[in-house]
Amino acid sequence: MAIRSSVGFNTYAAYDGTSMAAAHAGVVNGLGGGSFGTNQNISRVQVAVIVQRARNYPGGTPTIATFSDVPASNFGYQAIETLAARGIISGAACLGGSGQCFRPNDTIKRGELSKVVRRAIESQP
Is the pTM of this model over 0.85? Predict the structure, then answer.
């Protein structure tokens, strides 16, 4: 059963209202232009933002970025840094060996997502 959004999306969420419930709770947003993007892939940075919002972790801003490919100007910087500090997410060596990279715009693999969700569930608020 598709549920019509009442939070400003022109598209339908086809997951029995789950997407809309998350939107109403402030955990997820649309993609702009009235689109929710129900059937689109999700990036690593978007997952970090969603997890931080869902767990309601207080954010902090470190003086030195954890990942060389996530500058402070990135919309998910605070979420990524918060989750990294809690051990919920991690990066990998950057190509070329210059520090740790998070690859924020890459899509997340199912195994990676499962690991993030498990760590977030087990983490203290």
Answer: no
